[in-house]
Every structure is written in C-alpha cells, then in structure tokens.
Design brief:
It is a single chain. The chain is α/β, with parallel strands linked by helices. It is built from five helices and 15 strands. 41% of the residues lie in helices and 16% in strands. The strands form three sheets. A six-stranded mixed β-sheet has the order 3-6-9-12-14-15. The N and C termini lie far apart (104 Å). The model has no long low-confidence stretch (mean pLDDT 87).
C-alpha cells in the first residue's frame, strides 16, 4: 500500500469510529491519534533500517506533539485508531493487529527486564477502553473488548468483554465475524457486575438450602409424631 492510500485509510477510520469528526481537514490538523500513527510509521521504518537513535528521536518528537508514546519497535497494523490518546503507551515488542481501537491512558506494557518478547499482542478488532492496562507477553484475542481501567494479566479469549482489576469476563463471546463496536470497550446495556453475580448466586444457593432444610425439618417432625403415635397405640 502506498503512502497516499494509507493516509486515506487512516482518515476514513476516524470517521468510522468517532461521530465528532466533521471534515478531513479537521482530522488531519487536530487529531493526535492520526498524527501519532503517521509519525510511528516513519519511526518504525527507521527502526527496521537499523537507524535506532533517529527512530527513537522521531518517536520522541511524536510523543511531544501528541502525548502518545509508541516505541518505534512496536508493530502496528492497518486502520488502528487511537481516540483522544493522551497518556497512551505502547512498548517495544507490542504487536497490534488491524482495526484495533485504543483510548487515552492505555498501556501495552512489559513486566520483565529481560530481552525478547515482553509486551502484549492484540489481534484484529480489539478495543481497549480508557486507562486499560495490558501487561506482559500475553495475547488479547480477536474481537475482545477490555473496559476502562481494567488490568489484564492473562490471555483474553476471542470476542469476550473484560472489566475489573484483575480483569474478569462479564459478557460471553460474540460469534460474529465482525464484532459490534463498543465505545471505550464497555457496552452500556445488560452488563452485570461480576461481584453482584456471585452474590446473587450465593443468595440463590442459600435460598435453595433453606428450602431443603425446612423440608427436612418438616419430615423429621412428621416422623417424630408418627413414632410417638405408634408408641401410644402399643401401650394401649
């Protein structure tokens, strides 16, 4: 894909995922996520050409201009949209697939000081909500959504929605090839708090045990009355 086609694709994806976008001129001049992607592609190309310092300096300029820090060694796919973007950090060995959406404050971070793969991999159509932290060389599978401020420390299955610290699944997998887009990675309907779900399950179990206990007490009482009646009959 040539540079012009890539720029057109980057602009089009903003209109797809941000209803506030009004014109191409506005996107090109005022969207830091768009700027960050353009600068990263240049920095990444320099990195692959082994011009390491120049790549890092180019990335540093991008961080200064946009508030988005992307290491030039990170691999980023097509139609990736960073919305708002301030405070977003993407580490050196991170891999981001196609059609991914990241919001401000997202971190794709490493938890090891050793060389090699130490940052996350995001497959296609992943959404990370504002402040989401994905840490370590784990994989967030295709179509998964991570809610705002969640902390992900283990692999995320495809198509599910995760929230909390540490992140837990709150919605089942979507089976469609193209998962529905959910702003900030968190649907606002039919979303139950995992803790509330556990409490409800405990309440239901207690109610069931109480019913069984009542039935046993009635049965014991009835058996006691029956034995007492039998003994009285024998004495007479």
């Amino acid at each position: 894909m040539n540079l012009l086609s890539q720029l057109k694709e980057d602009i089009a994806v903003v209109f797809d995922r941000d209803p506030a976008a009004r014109s191409t001129f506005e996107v090109v001049t005022t969207y830091p996520g768009f700027h960050a992607m353009v600068i990263h592609r240049l920095a990444h190309k320099l990195w692959r050409m082994q011009w390491k310092w120049l790549a890092r300096f180019t990335s540093h300029i991008g961080r200064w201009l946009t508030g988005i820090e992307i290491h030039p060694g990170a691999t980023i796919g097509r139609r990736v949209f960073i919305d708002h973007g301030m405070g977003c950090v993407i580490g050196e060995t991170a891999e981001v697939g196609d059609d991914v959406t990241l919001y401000h404050g997202v971190t794709l971070g490493g938890i090891s000081l050793e060389k090699g793969k130490r940052h996350p991999t995001l497959e296609d159509h992943v959404i990370l909500g504002a402040g989401a932290q994905v840490l370590g060389p784990i994989v967030v599978r295709r179509g998964a959504r991570v809610g705002a401020n969640a902390v992900v420390l283990a692999e995320v299955p495809p198509g599910v929605t995760m929230v909390g610290i540490p992140a837990k699944q709150i919605m089942p997998r979507e089976r469609t090839d193209a998962p529905r887009f959910a702003a900030y990675g968190t649907p606002t309907h039919d979303v139950a708090d995992p803790a509330q779900q556990v409490i409800k399950a405990l309440h239901a179990e207690i109610a069931a045990l109480t019913t069984k206990l009542d039935a046993l007490e009635r049965e014991l009482a009835e058996n006691g009355r029956t034995r007492a009646t039998g003994q009285e009959d024998r004495t007479h």
